[in-house]
Records
---
Amino acid sequence: MVEEKDVSESLKEWDEKVVGKTLERFPERKKEFATISGIPVKRLYSPVDTADIDYNRDVGFPGAYPFTRGVQPTMYRGRFWTMRQYSGFATAKETNERFKFLLEQGQTGLSVAFDLPTQIGYDSDHPLAQGEVGKVGVAIDSLADMEVLFDSIPLDKVSTSMTINAPASVLLAMYIVVAEKQGVPMEKLRGTVQNDILKEYAARGTYIFPPQPSMRLTTDIFRFCSEKMPLWNTISISGYHLREAGSTAVQEVAFTIADGIAYVESAIKSGLDVDAFASRLSFFFGSHSDFLEEIAKFRAARRLWARIMKERFNAKSDRSTRMRFHTQTAGCTLTAQQPDNNIVRVTMQALQAVLGGTQSLHTNSRDEALSLPTEDSVQIALRTQQIIAYESGVGDTIDPLAGSYYIEYLTNEIERLATEYIKKIDSMGGAPAAIEQGYIQKEIHAAAYAFQRAVDSGERVVVGVNKFTVKEEQSMEYLRVNPQIEREQVERLMALKQDRDGAKVEATLKALKQCAEGTENLMPYIIDAVKAYATLGEICDVLRSVFGEYKAPDIL
Amino acid sequence: MSSKKIRVLVAKPGLDGHDRGAKVVARALRDAGMEVIYTGLRQTPEMIVRAAIDEAVDVIGLSILSGAHNAIFPRVMELLNAEGVDDILVVAGGIIPEDDVPMLKEVGIAEVFGPGTPLQEIVDFIQSNVKK
């Protein structure tokens, strides 16, 4: 055992006698060092910095409260993280082919990207959908498209994550019905709907309804799944988009957990018992470019969430306090300049996520600062994960960086700073109120601006952008979505409206409207409408007519 | 240089919610002494052109990351032309492949700023190219 007092004395001695002399002759690169979040970084960390850590209380063991070291007892020794590439473009048919390609390449789960009209609840023939159909994801107008999307993909074998928020209930309903047609009952379905509306208001922008009815839609999914879909993740509380919008690592943890608190409070208020739904909450983080800070961030987030669930919400089961999360490498760190360098960035960011104990991972493709990724680029991105998993050996022992003085110190520091933010948000009335007042948006925007200023001044180096630049022609092949797609999709939609039983559509939409005006769970009514081939736009229009639409505050 | 402040409309056409770039640029233009109006999300070309005329701006900055630029930017220019507006400088930014830039310039977008553009470059371009 090291005596703490001895270390601080010898540290002081080292500082004065050894470091002092060197500094006179060789000054350091910078006067002050800091993480991307602005946490000061000292020259050296030692037992002095971790003296107040109680191992059992603060660090503990994998698979046990407070889960600092990971959520499963054996972590990647049992099974690697799920390699889950977010993908989707053009029509259901083309995305179905990409899915099959990815599964053949050894991908272990699906992640569906929907186009913007789908995410905002518009059919492909809506005036605002013009130019957007099939662009950033696949266009889904009705159950008919969803049937094509998952054609010949056994839904009892794969798990599917769907990046869908405002109309999450509708897409979940479509998934349930497609599975049912495949003969797979909903209690067997594994996957996730993102279903996190708060971060849409704060950062991502694909909201439809005002906060209150949105929170009802969210908790209706919690309740429905707690009764009928025990393996389904009812929400993916997302820090990723807050981070991509410019927030720091500390803000990412703080704002995500503040959103999480709001969902838990809303569900409890609607009459659910915390242990009935909390174990199906999942999270989603970014993996940015500060290697060690990111690893500490993941550990800090797990511990902080566990403590909040236990201490604030009195969760009885450890499973309710366990933060499981998906990670994506940071799209905003990719450069359009010298795009092959992005492969290296993504490799480091993916490694951080693995060292931080992620449950699933998306690695970005090198060409994403230029356009949608090509198949070649996606394959390199997936191979990056496979190399980390099968060649590097980092998954052979759990949480290998635990006990590093710096990592443990930084884990504490991120938890402490995030807790301060959460207190502030609590005092404003919680995350929904803080978003309504524009507080969270302003904090993120200020961080984004400061970051860009630091890059522009050269204080923060981005290789290939403000240092080590070369003159280059953009020579990469990139994926282009055929503009023809939009017309074809609209034609399919027209044909569907001709073929279906109009009276049945009308009846189910009428029933849905009545439900929306009352307080019953919306899910069964949405499933009925979906089964009758009512379109996404029609279903969302019914809800718009009852709930109204959200208008964002003017924040700059 | 005249003492009149340059007025800029920073606009997010289409359904794309990624407004980090638009907001950062808006802030930089404001810090450079311009008057900046930000439209917020989900603007149609019609709404943007209307706002530009109503607000009597000198510059429109369009930001798109969703890939819808080839459909939306020419439409904005078409509407400006239809209104007989030829003294507004229109610039754009976002995820826009280089191959698309010549066509966008042909319809009248003065410059397209891709990822990694220093803010000062945008400020300088506007200051030296503004039409009135």
Note: Residues 7-129 of chain B form a domain with the Rossmann fold fold (CATH 3.40.50.280).
---
Amino acid sequence: MSNIRTRIPILNLNPRARREALVFYLMISPWLIGLVLFIVYPMARSLYLSFTRYQIGHEPIVTGLGNFNRLLEDGDFWRSLRVTLLYVLGSVPGQTAIAIGIALLLAQKIRGVNFWRTIYFLPSVVSAVAIAVLWFYVFNPQYGLVNTLLAAIGIKGPGWVFDENWALPSLILMSWWTVGAQVVIYLAGIKAIPQVLYEAVEIDGGGSWARFRHVTLPMLSPVIFFNLILGLINAFQVFDGPMVLTNGGPNKATLTYMLNLYKQAFDFGNLGYASTLAWVLFLIIMGLTALVLRSSALWVYYESEQR
Amino acid sequence: MSTIDETRRSAAQNTLLNRPGGLHLSQSTGRFIGKVFTYTLLTIGAAVMFFPMFWMLTASLKPEWQILTEPISIPSEWVHVQAGNTVQELPLWNTTNPAGEQEEVITIGTRRYTTVIDLNQLTEDMLISAPADALGETQPTEVGNVVLNVRTLTREDGSQIPVASLARDGGNILVAPVEALTAVASRMALAEVNAGERVTVEVGDASFKGRQVSDGPAVLALGPESELTIVGPKAIAEQAILVPAEVPVGESLVPIGNTELLHYSLQGYPADEYYVQLSSETWQPVIDLSDVNASAFAVENARLSEEVTTRTFNLAAMPVRTLTGEDGSQAEVVVLIRTAATSLVIPVEDAGSIRLSPISRLAEPFVLNIGGIPVRYRDDYVEHGEEQSVAIVGERLNMSLVAPQTAITEAFDVASNSLTRVTRLRLYYENYIEALSKDLGGATFFTFFGNSTLLVILNWLGHFFSVTVVAYAFARLRAPGKNILFIILLSTMMLPWPVMLIPQYEIFSRLKMINTLWPLFIRSFFGNAFLIFLLRQFFMGIPQELEDAARIDGANTLQVLWNVMLPLSKPALATIAIFTFWWTWNSFFEPYIYLSSPKNYTVSLGLGFFKSQYRYTFHLLMSASVVAILPIILIFFFAQRYFIEGIQLTGLKG
């Protein structure tokens, strides 16, 4: 059966099906063209550029692994990688824990679920820029909300965004504020857990903790897993918040990976080197995602596994 | 597995039915505690989420002083009380009066005090002569009802006592224990001490250079000095009158209430009437701008008489000269503004609206030109609650605001830090006007709004065109390769975008689209993975039969899409519209790299720019932020379920 008709599937169809397939490809053509023009070609091109020296306004010159060698000795690269890893480590687990916590509360039989959900979601609707502008004020050491409240209970607050040691924690705290979308997803996940399972725990004499530990958490683990991956990808590419809140400062304490990439590409015009940075970030994200994916067998519970 | 579940469920039902009463009670108590716990946590969480936004809103409506002094407070303005029949307003303060009640007062002066000891009561056995190195640092400390400069004396046996130093004793310092001093120490006005004659008082071997207070004891001033603010009931302000600064004469100190005040008599007033000075400052003659426009004119100085008389209009002293007309007629005119060659004058009979204004109200005037003479004026001058236009004329004058001493029967003095301004709620909506009209590199926030709105509309067009068509194909049509393409579509949602960034920038750069809006909407005409997936899921839920019926009637694919699918997909289309708005409105990175001149900025980019320009004017920064987020907040309130459903669908199943 290895004739030409089976290898090119569209020729293997009857005229009506062939027509339908043609209409299908015609209809998805905007997306297909966009895919090639704005995703496939750019990815290939930036892969090529990552092996070149390419200044804005000049032609790219292939330098082989030159950019990668430069990367190893680039202090800003390592600094930004460290800042970003710390940010991811602080922001993603924190967001996950807070979002699950809020979702658990909202899943109780409470009055006015919509009201509470609106409030918890509100910060997530607002642009990252507006949030950063607001938190720039909230974190102001003299006139800000945080230090005023701390002063009220007798604590002298730190310099937050102006303090090298506190700028990154400020950024992480800010990220914990926008968990609305995750709350919505976890809430839907919790609501989808069959009530029967909770009743079973009750029969076995388990309390709230047992219900959470043995039913909610395992049943929610696929959702957590999915959110974790999305959160990881987003946190690695964080730009708006650090850009507006601290612009990478003070003394590069919040120079995230994307801020460094932006500076290389658009402040210094090193498009080749910036492409290398982009691909290294791509590989890091893919690697970590694969790691989470492989670890998922250990902690993500799929109902189908036990049937 | 399922059989086990069922057994458990029926067992559960049995227990529920047969539950004994005692257990029931304890469970309901537990549930109540759980409820309280849940609501408490919910409220705390909601406060953390909501309060910063509420705080942002209040800050946007605050005056700047409040941002800097009262970070957590409702927007307020300072309350003033009008002084007599003048336009001056005196600040009103809250304080506690000697009777312990809260009172609204005005300040009428200050008084300096020091701590003194009565030398006549000082005895030899109180005194200790100590070497300087046995004494610690000076620390002003409140002891009894006086403040003393307390030091710690370490005696030879190592014990320590608090003392205050009184005088030098050769190389040593003469001190007395604080305990003993409290009996002889008191607070006294510095002016009173200094008015006393110098005396030397001997106590044992020691001699002290003190002051003999009239009708009192000989005292030794120890310090520390303190300044108290003298305040009085706000009713004093009603009787205030404005006089030229040289009019109050014959200053002397009189006791009023529990304090003392300087009082004056006024030149030209009966000598036995005494007045207290409330303020002394510079005032400026002004005249209604309409009178200037109607009657004032410029003349050459040569046509004005050399001789000048001073005439007073409502306390404002103005130069009056004689103007000789071309026909030889003469008229008296008030010289409003005199320059080297010409003067702006107004006939005396039209000068009735000349009056005085505190100079602080005339800051940053505008300038207009009358006959080559620049006239400074303000069009928002407020007098007795009404806004007017006034021109600034004549010479500045020093004036004193005084009140008759008879009005001040209840003055008292308080520490200045115990005074707080009297405030009342006032929303400074002007902040919004100021923030929105700020010039940001040739653009204002309105420009940014226009750009963002245009982008939203173009992205809507793009998405409605591309997403519907592609989603329909993925939902309904069969074709080889479709599944692989769909998986590719889903995977592009998770693709890190930085790898596409630089070549995309290259493309738009080649197309000469940098610093235009094109890169920010053109891609929406090529679909969006998230929205395609969302709409495809919705299309899959529409029964195939409806479509088949249309097909039988001869409709083609596009007609089916337009006439059958889309009318049934309004909720999904609303979600697409809202997400498109959301992303476009909030997008920052792409506008940031593609746009360079402020006239092309979007709202988010403009807000970031505003922050970089006006970093610490928080009231304006917050006004700008509120305006920037208002559209999306409003949409969220009215169309919340589309946000929620869109996120649930793609979040759970993606």
Note: Chain A has two domains: 14-67, 74-306.
